[in-house]
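We now fix the convention by which a protein and its fold are recorded. The integers have meaning only within a learned vocabulary of local backbone shapes. A complete example follows; check for yourself that the lines match position by position.
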Amino acid sequence: MPISVTFVLGKKENYFFNTPTHWAWHNLPPDIEALFTKSPNIKDVIELALGSNGTYFISYRDHDGQVLCKHYNLPNALTSWLYCSHPSVVRDLVTLSVTLGPYDSYYAWDKSSASWSNLPPKLEKSILNRLEHQDAWKTTWKANGAEAPSFVSLGADEAYWMRTVSGGGCWDLKCSAPPSNPGATDGMAGLRGMNKFLEDSSDFNGVAGLHLFPSHPDAYILITMAGKAFSNLPEFTWVDYNKLSPALPSFAQGLLPIPPMPKHRQQAPPAVQPQPGISPQPTAQPQVQYQQPIQSPQPQQHHNCCPPTAPGAPHNCCVQQPVQPVQPRPFGLPVAVPYYAQPVMQQFHYGAAPLNGQQGGYPNGGYGAGPVYR
């Protein structure tokens, strides 16, 4: 199964960005950084979540293909759900997603079960409205699973965004009204613009995910199903983010209650070998357009991305030299414009109009396409 995208920010200028073709990291907890420098090298990171007080969860594919995880200082309820009184984690690590919020809040889910605690009241109400049955091993959602949350993001001050399998969902970005004083700014203009975009959307079928960050209340990254990124990020992330964001693939939401996944790509036709004595015509390289240009020279930083290796070689994540561009993983999609298969047709057809009286999130937690349960 291909990985989805991961964008994580922490308090001490630490971050981890992961896409199907690239990853980048900076100033992560020592136990996590050790995974990137150990030998044999890990092949991939499936999920990474950072919380306050050094809290983290990471699942990864080791050099031999085995999927493992490490964590520290997780909320007690989350640890109990992960292990369920067993000596090792019993959840499906290949499809497991974890989002950590402030005050020990979290939402965790895999292809068959979900767990949450201390969520914002409106978000929890929305989730419960969609829930049909739950026990220790299975979570059943209404509308034959169409109402299952497939992406949940927690921000600061009880901000959140949630998308369902059918393209419904709810949100509350906690962006206040703009300052009344002429010329005054409060750093929330980007979030207010994002909130307007969500208000104008009939559903979330075009949104793969909206990443919020408890440690940075005004920061966000929105990823569309077409693979476009829109963001407001602190400057210490710009160098790596500007290398990764143009390489995002397009996404599709499947039937499982997991985040939208990159679309499968078609096999590129074999290259035609030039005949002896005939030089092939050089191909012009496309110009990469960054969505968030660097406005001023930044101090030299320690960035970590994947070095170049031969196709099919084991993944090697050594320290990247700052002057080198981020390199693709040997087993990922090509950096050039890839060939993708036809989009997976949406299996659900819901057309309920948005409710009136929205204030960031709907009073009953419902939104857009899909039944609204009260």
Residues 272-374 have pLDDT under 50 and may be disordered.
